[in-house]
Amino acid sequence: PEFLPCFQALPVHGRSRGCAYVMSLERRSIAAVDEEIRNLIRTGHVQKAEVVLRDMEVRGMVPDIVSYNRVMNTYAVTGDVQSSLALLDRMLERNVFPSIVTYSTICKVLSVGGHAQLIEQLIKELQRNKVQLNVYFFATLISACGRCNPPDTVLAERTFYGVLQAGLKPQQVKRVLSRVVGEQRACELALRAQHLRQAENISKKCPATGWIGKRNLETDGSLLKIT
Predict the structure, then answer these.
(1) CB 97 within 8 Å of CB 11
(2) pLDDT digit of tens for each residue in the chain (227 aa)?
(3) Do 147 and 111 form a contact (C-beta atoms < 8 A)?
(4) pLDDT at 12
(5) For 48, what's the count of Cα atoms within 13 Å in the CB-facing half-sphere?
(6) For FRET with 122, which of 24, 104, 111, 196 sits at 20 to 30 Å CA-CA?
(7) Distance separating alpha carbons of residues 53 and 68, to the nearest angstrom
(8) Residues 17, 101: contact at Cβ < 8 Å?
(9) Who's near 145: CB < 8 A, 6+ residues apart?
């Protein structure tokens, strides 16, 4: 599927000082509906929350990004990819641009169904658009690798080093990695990553060692190389 048909830089959702006191009547209504959706989901009435959201759209009101994210998050329970992507289309039709939370939720939904390749595709597209990802994206991809049949250990290990390349801490995904490749292998990979990080830090402090700038990391699933 085409995840980002109208992708733009992710907007920052926030309010200026005092904005809460000058909200329009429509905006207050949207906030009230969002609260209703939140309460319905919290009490397990997911279908009613979906009806409220769709009714809001029918009336010509544009739901808040938070409302869409709340409903989309419920699809992660069953891994309902089709409903998630349909909801994403509805958002884009109303010029409600996805937030980083929206895309991380889509990854969560895909992970439940073991759609590792689709998560990898989405991550690459976000990175191509200069979106700074958090460790959750990589954790959901590794988790999805474990749900593949058979488990995709090569992609899981490659993703683990992708965490390092992204400037994040690989240790944060070690637990989920161990479920895919085993505890012993996860410890080996974590140790290699630690040595690489230490070597890179030393190279930054001591240019005379011959290291120039940031090195590229490559892995074939079993052997890590520095190029």
Answers:
(1) yes
(2) 444 443 344 433 433 333 343 344 456 577 888 899 999 999 999 999 999 999 888 888 888 899 999 999 999 888 899 999 899 989 988 888 899 999 999 999 999 999 999 999 999 989 988 888 999 999 999 999 999 999 999 999 999 999 988 889 888 999 999 999 999 999 999 999 888 877 766 555 554 443 333 444 444 444 444 33
(3) yes
(4) 35
(5) 11
(6) 196
(7) 8
(8) no
(9) 116, 151, 152, 153, 155, 156, 159, 180
Would you state the torsion angle of the CA atoms of residues 21, 27, 29, 33, taken in this order, to the nearest 10 degrees? -110
Q: Tokens 């329970």 belong to which residue?
A: 77
Placement of tokens 């290699």 in the chain: 192
